[in-house]
Design brief:
The complex is a heterodimer.
Chain A (H helix, E strand, L loop, with lengths): L1 H20 L5 H5 L5 H25 L3 H22 L4 H8 L8 H35 L11 E5 L2 E7 L6 E2 L5 E9 L7 E8 L10 E2 L7 E6 L9 E8 L4 E7 H4 L1 H13 L1
Antiparallel strand pairs in A: 1-2, 2-4, 3-4, 4-7, 5-6, 5-8, 8-9
Helix pairs in contact in A: 1-3, 1-4, 3-4, 4-6
Chain B lengths: L1 H23 L8 E9 L2 E8 L9 E6 L4 E6 L5 E5 L5 E8 L2 E6 L18
Antiparallel strand pairs in B: 1-2, 2-5, 3-4, 3-6, 6-7
The chains are: A alpha+beta, B alpha+beta.
Chain lengths: 275, 125
């Protein structure tokens, strides 16, 4: 995965470099001399090709094409920025700096200017470094989608199959009145989805249809819910799913909490011990 | 090149702020009903309802239903968002019913005397 990201970044950087060499203005700044017109044209085409290859790589290898395109834009921005900051640092740029096109306003002013420029330079570089670091940290933190994790449950309620998982595997979130809450996500199979009116979730077996728990939000595809967990929850407590179809039929299924939310069960055990 | 570099500085700062903000923001599902019940003494139960983010829910329906399915008590939460009722003799559960698909349920076996650790004002007589 990281290799893919690195490849997208390097390809974008090379692509931009190609585009720069392809222009009359930036070629001398980047490589120190102006290539022949035909060579510049070739570099220009190569640059676009490399950017396209980076896009293809991103769209085909990352989770979905949409994610790929978005990440490609991100890496593109970083590559562009890197080039912008790199250009003035190239050794053959120094001579250009030493001989400015504009004459300095006065000697004193030019002298005053120097420290300020130096600090701006460092601010710019540190901003870039922080941006890269934050992007890297965010990438490392990217979690698999809940329903694609190994612990997601593939189940069936009546005729409808579905996948269910807790949204995160952390302990429950303790909210108002000290009540622990846990969020879950469900997705019914493509052909079943239209048949579902509502789905409800609750810990412990519902004692009446109207006491089936909290309804999953959303009318299609990924439906989320956040439910209150009972204060005496154990690994044997059952999580009950009630599915009501548009045809009025009701189907129920359940799992032990130790199967669905082991992290939360461990948290309750810990609470019990410290009591 | 240099002016370009300086012109980009505010853009960089904004992009950085955006990255930081989106990175920190966690998924939020607000307005979930929550219900907590305690035994004030061995014959009296007090429940307090509200929403996960900390709001109270005065006037919301609460029902106490026994295990035979009979509604023992149907009231609304008081102005302090609590309801006090005599403890039923049989098995029961408390249904805090905000609206269709939005509810919280507490079973009688969860209801005990408040723990000294999380003793709040409303849990006292």
């Amino acid at each position: 995965m990281s290799i893919t990201h690195l490849a997208i970044f390097v390809l974008s950087l090379l692509g931009f470099a190609g585009l720069a060499i392809g222009t009359e203005r930036y070629a001398p700044q980047l490589i120190g001399f102006k290539p022949a017109k035909r060579a510049r044209k070739a570099f220009w085409i190569l640059g676009w090709l490399l950017l396209a290859v980076a896009l293809m790589l991103a769209a085909l290898t990352l989770q979905t094409a949409a994610v790929g395109v978005t990440l490609w834009f991100g890496w593109l921005s970083l590559a562009g920025l890197a080039l912008v900051f790199l250009l003035p640092e190239l050794p053959w740029q120094k001579s250009a700096k030493a001989a400015p096109r504009r004459a300095p306003r006065s000697k004193a002013a030019a002298h005053d200017d120097k420290p300020a420029r130096k600090s701006r330079h460092w601010i710019g570089l540190s901003l870039l470094a922080v941006t890269v670091a934050v992007c890297m940290a965010a990438l490392l933190r990217v979690e698999t989608m809940p329903l694609h994790r190994d612990d997601a449950i593939e189940g069936k309620a009546g005729p409808w199959s579905f996948a269910l998982a807790e949204i995160d595997r952390d302990p429950p979130e303790v909210m108002h009145l000290g009540v622990p809450l846990k969020a879950y996500r469900i997705r019914f199979c493509e052909t079943c989805d239209l048949d579902i009116l509502r789905a409800y979730l609750k810990v412990n077996k519902p004692r009446a249809l109207r006491a089936s728990g909290v309804a999953f939000g959303g009318n299609r595809w990924d439906r989320d819910v956040e439910i209150q967990l009972p204060s005496n929850l154990t690994g044997d407590s059952e999580l009950w799913l009630t599915v009501v179809g548009k045809d009025g039929s009701v189907h129920r299924t359940s799992w032990p909490m130790s199967r669905v939310s082991p992290g939360s069960v461990a948290w309750f055990e810990q609470q019990e011990k410290t009591r | 090149m240099i002016p370009v570099r300086y012109a980009l500085r505010p853009v960089c700062a904004r992009a950085l702020a955006l990255v930081l903000l989106t990175g920190i923001a966690a998924p939020v599902l607000a307005h979930e009903p929550v219900l907590k019940c305690v035994l004030l003494d061995k014959d009296t139960v007090r429940c307090k309802g509200g929403y996960a983010e900390g709001e109270d829910a005065p006037g919301v329906n609460v029902e106490v239903i026994d295990y035979a399915g009979k509604t023992v008590l149907a009231r609304k939460l008081g102005r302090d968002s609590t309801l006090t009722f005599p403890r039923p003799d049989t098995g029961y559960y408390v249904l805090f019913d905000v609206g269709p698909g939005s509810q919280a349920i507490v079973e009688h076996d969860e209801i005990g005397p408040p723990k000294s650790r999380d003793m709040a004002r409303w849990m006292r007589n």
